[in-house]
Every structure is written in structure tokens, then in C-alpha cells.
Backbone:
């Protein structure tokens, strides 16, 4: 069971709508149940450094079945997962904006958002995920 | 001057239409004038190994303002660019499927296609580019 | 739908039995439908350089739904996929020993074998896959 | 002198038994005296992001002949090894779950566990190592 391209488009569209409301252009990416990219869009004017981050936030959320924001709070210096951000060849993102996509309680993909501050990324990711 | 997200969507949609005619699911990616990803889509059932390849065919086509098929013919053993495929951290793709996007004779982006044999990838990339 | 750990163990055990018949210690790896490692074993005395190769032969066979030997024949200089071996961050293996695992005609994983010459690797991979 | 495949299987089996008791699926990996992977298993449902982490916790525990948890306490900001996690091409893991395997006081391999919180990973790694 996995998210499909049609799912990914709907999720990305919902995220972009929220990004426009915030007035902040974003990168939005969706991965499947294997952590592999289904679709990515960069809104005009969004940061080019966020292409990689959005894709890898989605990868991270699926890789550990967790929101990247929650993983991040466990990965600060002194906390139990500090250092996890150097694993998986630099693909683990430990700040807000990656959210798993669930179907019947099972994680079947994830969305990753990057382009604003942490609160904006998280807000857009949640709006995107809720369209799944 | 650069390709926009709206351009990328139109290009990808045209490529997917051609892919459906061929009955071969594809990965299609579009980069901007800076070689940076604007959008990527993987059709359901398309190879997961082609995510990276489609994005990097587009990167390559913009990086050298050339179709990847033409670059490939210059990059075979004994030819003038043999070895170029290991440059740029493995991002240079030297086989068919990457096509520059031109506006008034200027390269402002590129499309990359991967998911079939070389002829199929090239056919889809050309259909995609012609929608630009 | 994906190969499970129990599947992987059965596949690896069958491969190792064949490897013992050949008198050649091997690395054998199995990935799931997303290309992610399920299990790997290195028989005592097998090459340490083959750890990476066995895992990535399995990854490649799933990434393109093809035996790595067949991909290799398309990836020689002058052929349509020459250069593919530098894509996917060096994870694409284009010589014999990677075989997809099919269930009802669908690729749901793959096995990768490395430790001998090409013919030995392929023989062991086929024996392994046939236990799936 | 080094851990063998038979050792690795026994160690992994003991770890998996403990993981089942905890109700938490895990990735478990064993490396030899050279730090090279002997065997890895991912229990069904365990995180795919933990494949890399389990292998590299084992690599780290053998590379410095130390439990990764102890290395981690020396690698926090302000401590003597802070920064070590970016060495060795991102293979050094500085959180709980990697334990050396000793024979007659000599480190001859290591086990790495990833799939739960730090306490769970450590508990499973210790159970695994005690079967050596």
C-alpha cells in the first residue's frame, strides 16, 4: 500500500494553497511507502536550497514514521538521538516540515515542505497532509 | 529569464500524455535556468531508479545547453568528453532523455525523462519540450 | 506488497546452499519493494568489497525491475544506457548477480549476490530467487 | 580473530527475541573485526531509516572499541569529541545501540541496533551481545 501520483498531486496542491495564503513560496515533495520521490514542486521564488530539504524531510518522515519536528526535539545536543542527522548520507532532516501520510493507521508515504521558517513549513505540511 | 512552475507543469503534462500513448510510465523532471529542480513527477509504476536519472538528465541538459543524447555521443570511450559522467558528483547523465528548453534562442531550463528505453525517453522528452 | 524478512531468509539460505556447492563464499542481500535492505549475509571468507556490491545489485534489480546482467548489456560503451552506473549516487551495479523477486508478476523485492565471478554470482542469485 | 557468520546469526537472533519481548521491530547488524558488515536483518515493520543506522552503530562500536552510548556522552557540544559524528563519511553514530563483541578481552566485532528509542535500542543490543 502506497501513496500514488494522484495522491501526491492533491497533497501538493493543498500545500501550495496554504503557502499562497501565507504569502510564502514553498518547495513541496511527496514520497511513497518506500521513501522514494513521487512528486516535487517548487513555487516560483521559493529557495533553491529547499529543493533538497523538502525531498529529504519527506524521506525522513517516512523513514522513521514520525514528523520531522518531533524527531528534531529528540535530536538536540544531550538528547537520545543527537547525531542522527549525519546518518543516511545526510538525508535526515531534523526540523519542522516533514509529515507522514497515513492510510488506515499505516504510514504509506510522507510530505516534506521547505521555504519559510519552521512554523510556516509545518503549517503548510499539515495542510498538505490533511488533503491525503 | 527562466522556466516557471507553470511552464514545468505544462511540459510535464505533455510528456505524460506521450508516455501514456506509449504505454510506458515515466519519471519527468524540469529544471530552471540555474539547473535547479522546479518540478518532478513519477507516474505510477515507473522505475524508482529513474527518479534520480530524470532530475539529472534535466540538470545535464541545462548544464551544457545540449541534449543528453548528443552529449553522450561525445562521451563514449575515445571521444573528446569521455569521463565527463563522473564530474559534478555523478549528476551528469550521458544518454537520451534530457532536452533543453529554449526561449528566444536562450536556454532557460531543461526537461529530463527516464523510465523506458533510450528511444522512448527521448520521444517523451521531445513531446514534453515542445509544449514549452 | 513486498518481500518480508521470512522471504529474505529463505532466499538467502537457498543462495548460500548453492554457493557452498560451488565452493565460493558469497555476500547475499535482499531488498523490499521500496529498494530498502531487508537482510544481508556475508559467508565466512567472502570478499569485504562485495558487501556494498551485493546490497546495490539488489537495489539496482528493484530500481529498474531488471536483472543487473541484462542492464549491463545495455550499459556498455556505445549502448543506450552507457553512463547509468554513475547515477543514484553510485548505487547502480551493471554486472551479473542482481535478480528481481516477483509475486503474481509484480516485482516486490530483489536479491543481490557478490563474491565470485559473474557466472557464479548469477548462478547463486538465480538459485536464491527461485526459493522466493 | 573475528566474529563469524554463525556468531552474527546467534547475536541477531538473541536481539530479535528481545525486540519481540519489547514489541518493537528492530534493525540489527553485526560487523567483524575489520568493521565490515557480516549480517543485517530488518524485522518486518521496522524503520527503513534504521538500516543505515544499525550498520553504522556496529561500525562505530568496532571503530573505537566502545559502546556508541559512551562515545555519545563524549561527543556532545563542549566535550572532547564533539564533531566526531561528521568523520568517516557520516558513518559514526553517537547514540545508544552499538556494542562491541569481545573474545578474551579483545574486540572482534560489534552489534548495532536501531528501531526504537535509545533505551530500547541499547537493551536489544546488550541482549544481542550477550549471546556472543
Residues:
Amino acid at each position: 500500500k502506497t501513496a500514488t501520483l494522484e495522491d501526491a498531486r492533491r497533497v501538493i496542491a493543498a500545500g501550495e494553497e496554504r503557502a499562497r495564503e501565507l504569502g510564502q513560496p514553498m518547495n513541496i515533495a511527496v514520497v511513497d511507502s518506500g521513501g522514494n520521490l513521487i512528486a516535487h514542486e517548487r513555487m516560483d521564488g521559493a529557495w533553491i536550497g529547499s529543493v533538497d530539504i523538502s525531498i529529504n524531510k519527506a524521506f525522513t518522515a517516512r523513514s522513521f514514521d514520525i514528523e520531522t519536528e518531533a524527531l528534531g526535539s529528540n535530536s538536540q545536543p544531550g538528547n537520545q538521538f543527537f547525531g542522527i542527522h549525519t546518518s543516511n548520507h545526510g538525508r535526515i532532516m531534523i526540523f519542522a516540515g516533514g509529515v507522514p501520510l497515513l492510510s488506515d493507521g499505516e504510514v504509506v508515504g510522507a510530505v516534506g515542505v521547505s521555504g519559510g521558517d519552521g512554523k510556516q513549513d509545518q503549517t503548510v505540511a499539515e495542510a498538505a497532509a490533511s488533503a491525503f
Observations:
- Chain B has a mean pLDDT of 97.
- The helical segments of chain B are 5-22, 50-63, 68-73, 118-129.
- Chain B touches chain A through 16 residues (CB under 8 Å).
